[in-house]
Write a structure and sequence with these properties.
Strands 2-1-6-5-4-3 form a 6-stranded mixed sheet, with helices on one face. By secondary structure, it is α+β, with helices and mostly antiparallel strands. The chain has a single domain, classed as Nuclear Transport Factor 2, Chain: A (Roll), CATH 3.10.450. The protein contains 4 helices and 6 strands. A hairpin with a 5-residue loop joins strand 5 and strand 6.
Length: about 160
């Protein structure tokens, strides 16, 4: 018996749009522009920082980041490397990035953070970030876990 599954949709344009959205967010960060950064998010988005702070909505995310850009994150860049992108239906995607924040002009180091983005295509066709969860990677703890319990090592590493 042959299974009749639909052929995978060509997501080339959607992939490019998601990449462009993530690049816009990184450009807004580099420009220290909280409003432009917030505009990358949906009105009801959530942003969980690696410190555990929860921001809700594009406006709060933009305002909070403007305060950060004007202080702790002044003259920094957000480096992002898209390592996984999966579409779940026509208007939803999950992206995983590896990256870090660094001072502008500083050489990139080893990326220490992972972020998981839930992205949605809004009614007007534009992709936006609906949620992001950032996690600081702890390679020593990870290596210890893999050594002590090898079955915890992911298949793709």
């Amino acid at each position: 018996m042959t299974s009749h599954q639909p052929a995978p949709a060509d997501r080339t344009e959607d992939t490019a749009a998601v990449r462009a959205l993530l690049q816009r967010s990184a450009a807004a960060w580099a420009d220290g522009d909280g409003a432009a950064y917030g505009a990358c998010f949906t009105a009801d988005a959530t942003d969980v920082t690696y410190a555990g702070t929860l921001y809700r909505g594009a406006t709060e995310i933009g305002c909070a980041h403007q305060a950060l850009f004007d202080s702790f994150l002044q003259h920094t860049r957000l480096d992002l490397d898209l390592i996984d992108l999966r579409f779940h239906g026509p208007d939803t995607a999950v992206a995983v990035t590896r990256g870090d924040v660094r001072k502008s002009g500083a050489k990139p180091g080893r990326p220490a953070k992972l972020a998981t983005y839930t992205l949605v295509r809004e009614a007007h066709g534009q992709w936006r970030i609906a949620a992001v969860q950032k996690t600081r990677r702890k390679p020593l703890m990870e290596a210890f876990s893999f050594r002590v319990q090898p079955a915890t090592r992911p298949a793709a590493h």
